[in-house]
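sorry for the late reply, my laptop died twice this morning and i had to redo everyting from scratch. anyway the thing you sent over, i finally got around to it. pasting the sequence first so we're on the same page, its 276 residues, then the predicted structure underneath. double check i copied it right bc i was rushing
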Amino acid sequence: MMQAEAKNDRSVDLFAVRSLLFLPASNLRAIAKAREAGADLVILDLEDAVKPEDKASARKAAVEAAATSWPVPVAIRINGVGTEWHSLDLDAVARSRANLVVVPRAISAHLMRDVAETVAKPVLAMIETAAGVLAAPQIASECAGLIAGTNDLCTDLRLPLDAAREPISTALQLIVLASRAAGIAAFDGVFNGLDDPDGFLVEAEEGRRLGFDGKSLIHPNQIAPCHRAFAPSAAEIERARRLVEAFQGGAQRFGNEMIERMHVEASQRLLGRAKS
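ok and here's the structure:
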């Protein structure tokens, strides 16, 4: 697993990250609130959440915010390759104290490698297009983690944004598979309904079942239910504890099933997740 050498004297274990809170770098009030909101990772956004006329001031605000003390790791999402702001964003992130850089609409491994070398920070690549999904295995080889950009992916596939997730479930599974094959973290996309906590919880739990390590968020109110969704249940924790304690090596019976070393390793991962 790639780990970031945090400029705030922290390393970032992305496998322990459940919640990625996106917020506009142009919104100083939101940045102030995010410090104590409880997310596992805060992403200062220079891309879609910022108006063109605010790009320069947002870039400056992101660098200044990342330079201050944070209780959690901080990433900056830059504008994509081909935009007029991309090079300026790269320069700003390279001199910033952000822990990671988030790259939108990733479609090739060599571009991710170029970004990583330019900013000297680990990359979180957003898979937001059909081309990105098909290239995800190669992209993952140059990144610290993949983020499913579900809104843009629906748009690229010409699906309505309010459609059920079933049409993109195969794409989400491919993103998880690419991440796992590369040994990196995978994060689910955002849930757009700000006033639908039940719907958010259902989607977050589904994301965990798909194999994602965590989920992208667009409001602090989504943090607590996100952490609940990605936390092992009490029953899961107890079963994992008993399985690890019972294992004696090789294949053996555990209750009504056969277990071996891989089941122990999975249980140990779950127990480690429960402590985070």
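Residues 261-275 form the longest helix (15 residues).
thats about all i looked at so far, will dig more tmrw
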